[in-house]
Amino acid sequence: MPHTAHHPVQLLPTVSIVEQTMRQARRAVGMALAGAALMTVLLLTERLWSSRALEAAAERHAVANRLTGEVRLADQQVKQAAQMAVITGDRKWAERYDKLLPELQQSIEHASLLAPPEVAKRYREKTFAAGLELAGMQESALRALAGDTPTAAKAIFDSERYQLQSDLLRSATEELTASTLAATENEVRLLQSRSYGIASGMLVIILGTGLMLWRRLSSGLNRSRSSLLDAEVRIQRLAASDLLTGLDNRAALHDAMHTAMSRARRSGGDLAVLMVDLDRFKPVNDRHGHMVGDLVLKEVARRLGRCLRQSDLRARYGGDEFVIVVEEQEGPGTALQAAERIVERLTEPMRFGDLLVNIGASVGIARFPADGDDDDQLLRKADSALYRAKQSGRGGVCLYDAALDDALAERDALEQGLRVGIAAGELVPFYQPIVDLERRSVRSLELLCRWRHPQQGLLTPDKFIAVAEDSGLIGPLTLSLLRQACKDLAMFPRHWRLSINVAPQQIQNENLVSQLLAVLNEFGVPPARLDVELTESALVSDTACAREVILALKQAGMTVTLDDFGTGYSSLAYLAEMTFDKIKIDRSFVRTLHQRPESAKIVDAVVGLSRSLGVETVAEGVETEADAAKLRALGVNLAQGYLFGRPAAARDIFEFNRQREAALHWAEAV
Ligand code: C2E
Ligand code: CA
Ligand code: CA
Q: Which residue's CA is minimally distant from atom 20 of ligand 1?
């Protein structure tokens, strides 16, 4: 993963929505409680007040009732006393009459106090004259009775005038008491109904306020609910998208792929999964920082959006990896076109202010349902196509192919086997002599690696060296071989040197020289006995690095040979610049020495240059005496090839040398 940046995540409004809702609810409940308390107080006061008023009214009504009865009784008694006085002529009745009359008047007075003022007033107006006249007539009648002239008294009482006036008085009194009664009754009824009115009014107010509060609260709650729903949608969207680019993230990609695949299954359509990996993103990120890296990723997302259809799925899959899913309407052409468009758009320079950034992209494509029918499988296959695309150079586009997958799996298995094999000591050194062409004596042994594979037998480097170089296993492999070789060296004459091969990748390892020295030191082998072969391609890929390594090796006391000379590019320029000890002319020139006149010319030129630089020349792949003779004639002084000995295990070399020396001794002796 090139980098992970921290981006501020926007605080979601959920918490504040919940808090706001709680505040609203709390306020509503508070208002309801306060309202209820106020209403209770009002209701209680009203109840108290109206019950007092009712009580008073009811009492007045009772008094009126009693007075009505009293008036009626007193009136009858007065009437009765007057009649009895006239009939019996007994003074006793007259006295009784005299006594009852003021009582009656007092009751009437009482009743008129209770009566509504206008009724009392009307009563007084109506009865004033009649009352006076009656009082006069009664006075005269009583006087007659006292003077023993009851007939005169009887005549007064029986007189039409007396009857008329007393009837008037009576009916007025009746009216007064009746209306007093009615008035007090009315008052009670009024008070009662007013109390009901107030109570029901308050009830209405309570209900109304409650309803209003409830409606406010529920509309607040509804608003909160919809805000929460919004927030939820936003959270879901955030959870499904990559924060930096806004594209789908991995999880959302898988979901969307499931949906797209089931839709394609129903419609019988095809899908293509494009795995896009940025080229040169890491150096941009390293050189200009993550801020610029982020800007680049955002710009990539924007460009992807512009060169694809709206319906195409776009996701950020990893640091600088993106996945696109497109529907294929006209076969694989659609996906290939899309991939090429993507590469083209992403290769266009990006400008951020003054900064100009150049990246690129490679794309691997896997197809549904042809290459797989589940998302993981498709992504894996798109990734393996991407790997191929990257291998074939930057800006590559590659369709998944099962054969590629097999090759990849095989390569993975090989890498794994190699890892285990190195640790298990299955990788062993073979040696091939490098001889002096004139004297035919061994100058050095070139260490050539062999793998004693437990199942496949003895494997030559062409089967595994490339994988070792790509996977970073070449370093450990070299050190393991050198260790074994240092032990083997004990079998050979001291003046035999050891040549080892160092791969281009290894010169980037800044510890290379010290690691080699450590092994030599461990076995007491002087560094001067070691010759390091570097290929021309190592020089080309990183000239500065190569120059430093060569210098360091020589400073450590080792010699350096330029291997495979003539297969690289600007060979002669490097030759002059870097101080090699030996130049090894590539096998291809030796092989064609007799067929192609140019080969001999090149060898001739190299020998000439080497002489002027004070460098030795080695010819490799020498198989025949004719080759050896020709090379010697051209001035090559060292050679290596089947003519002098095939690569072999240390023991075989030792044996061969012993026999050869014995033969030499024998020849000398003869
Ligand atoms: P190289 O360094 O050019 O090694 C010489 C190759 O030529 C060897 O192949 C050797 O067996 C072969 N050869 C020698 N004489 C003749 C001949 O007369 N005729 C023909 N046709 N071939 C001849 P080998 O052992 O298969 O190694 C192949 C390559 O693998 C080497 O090429 C070298 O580049 C690489 N290699 C081998 N061992 C190592 C190692 O330990 N480390 C690294 N980095 N590379 C190694
Ligand atoms: Ca070599
Ligand atoms: Ca070679």
A: 621
